[in-house]
Amino acid sequence: MIPQSFIADLLNRVDIVDVVGRYVQLKKGGANFQGLCPFHNEKSPSFTVSPTKQFYHCFGCGAHGTAIGFLIEYSGMGFVDAVKDLAQNVGMVVPEQDDKIPPAQRAAMQQQSMALSEAMSKAAEFYKAQLRHAPQAISYLKGRGLTGEIAARFALGYSPSGWDALKAVFPDYDSPVLVEAGLIIQNVEEDGRRTKRYDRFRERVMFPIRNTKGQVIAFGGRIMDQGEPKYLNSPETPLFSKGSELYGLFEARQAIRDAGYVLVTEGYMDVVALAQMGFPQAVATLGTACTTTHVQKLLRQTDTVIFSFDGDKAGRRAARRALEACLPHVSDDKTIKFLFLPAEHDPDSYIREYGAAAFEQQVHEAMPLSQFLLREAAGEHDLTSPEGRARVQFDAKPLLQAMTPTALRLQIVRGLATMTQSTPGEVEQLFELAKPVAANKIAPPKSRREQPVGLELKLIRVMIAHPTLSLNLDDEALLAFAHFGQEAAERLIWLVVQAQSLGEQGSFAALCQLLKETGSEYDALISEIGAAPEPDIDAERLWLMATVRHLKMDALKQELDQLFAAGLSSEEIGVRYREITAKQDQLRKEAEAG
């Protein structure tokens, strides 16, 4: 868990205009910057970035947030990765809970990471340059229907023949960084002696693999003639984990948003060929089965994920593994489908034979996850016999147990129940599903919390827009919030505590990020404040102090009335009466002083 104080400090140091400007062309427009929204198609700019609020807002699609939120939404990074990326750019080191690595060792690790990144970048440029002088590789790519434009977009390259071609770009060929990056191989004898060093990739078309920031972290190399392996991938390194990365995701991000879905294929060439054929929203797993991390990354980019697999047995096995990776992340607002092409085709060959329109039709007719799950469970079992139906339920049990209690799970339970001549309640009970839906009556909806209005809403707006103003509120001010009723008072006090926790570093952006982590209750209001003109903080401070004084006076008057109504003696009333009237006098003096 990253401390909230660090998040606040970070958001005070980064400039959201610089962060967004890396990905969106911005122009100054009044107090803010404007550009075309990267989250939806538009021809005239409705996307604004406020340097004073350190906040972005789109008047077209409603997207909004801080610099952290922008990186998460645009690049598909997780929260921690987004924070680390921003911190690195401003020279900050992210503190982590239970992080017992000494500072010197952490600095050395960061230095190693930078050295590896630099090595991969140099190698990528070298391979790219070599492609221009490799007629056999150019001929191979042209034979696959690829243009120079597509090759440039994916920064395709060529690794020349020879055992040490990389010496041309790495004079210090003995550097351990080259081995750690997976660019060269170091043979080691059983007695520990190091022998020959040589380039890992030779005479292959090179596919650079980029992370969400566009940095080259690995390579895939394809042989052009006969030979094994057909594809040679970089090994796992501190920069590269096959189970976490997706080929082509960096290049496909905007196309995924435009298309409304991402197409997940099985190989590098599928991705590049599909982009050439008019489907730039394709990505691929990296020679490994689809993982839950892959699914999480994809669902950050879009609400619809379509897996495309070859129709052969290997494709079916890959689809099953993808299904299992998806199940923990299934939700009712996401769509996951499975596209199976004829056994003799991959996406590239299918489009060449039948055309892009036919492939587009295949995409739209892809099999929904629910149907695929039930088909996998049914398998070849005999549904006319009790034993066959019991086996179907046995095979379906771990799949349904992996799902969260969603409406879609209930629909699948109902489908399975019909298939196996059971009731949904019996299936849920037999499978011991967490929070069964069908077996229980649906609880009546809870009465919705009353939304803040009037003076309470104004207080909330001021507190969110200028969190540092909360530092002027003392315990008596918080007690005075009882004027609004218990629920509203609790809401106001909670918000003040959150704002005060940020201290003097508190900013609109920092508080927005904190509130986002606690839920979506304030999301609409944050969006509204982010889109509004910048308020005058001095005027807001004067209004807040006057309002709090008024609430305190009301609270003191109410306490005074209760004191006289309690039937106490003059002595019992006296001490507290003098305290109350003294506070009232003090408040009047503060009001007169302005």
Percent of sequence in beta strands:
5-15%
Q: What are the low-pLDDT stretches, counting only 5+ consecutive residues below 50?
A: 440-447
Q: Which geometry do the CA atoms define?
A: globular
How big is the Rg? 31 Å
Oligomeric organization of the protein chains: single chain
Lateral strand order in the biggest sheet: 1-2-3-4-5
- What is the helical fraction, as a range of percent? 40-55%
Tell me the total number of β-strands.
16
Give the rounded overall mean pLDDT.
86
* Terminus-to-terminus distance: 43 Å
GO cellular component, one term: DNA-directed RNA polymerase complex
Catalytic activity: ssDNA + n NTP = ssDNA/pppN(pN)n-1 hybrid + (n-1) diphosphate
InterPro entries: DNA_primase_core_N_sf, DNA_primase_DnaB-bd, DNA_primase_DnaG, DNA_primase_Znf_CHC2, DnaG_bac, DNAG_N, DnaG_primase, TOPRIM_DnaG_bac
Cofactor: Zn(2+)
Which characteristics define this entry?
5-stranded antiparallel sheet; 594 residues; DNA primase DNAg catalytic core, N-terminal domain; DNA Primase, Chain A; alpha+beta; Dna Topoisomerase Vi A Subunit, Chain: A, domain 2; 5 domains; 25 helices; primosome; 12% strand; zinc ion binding; transferase; 16 strands; DNA-directed RNA polymerase activity; 5-stranded mixed sheet
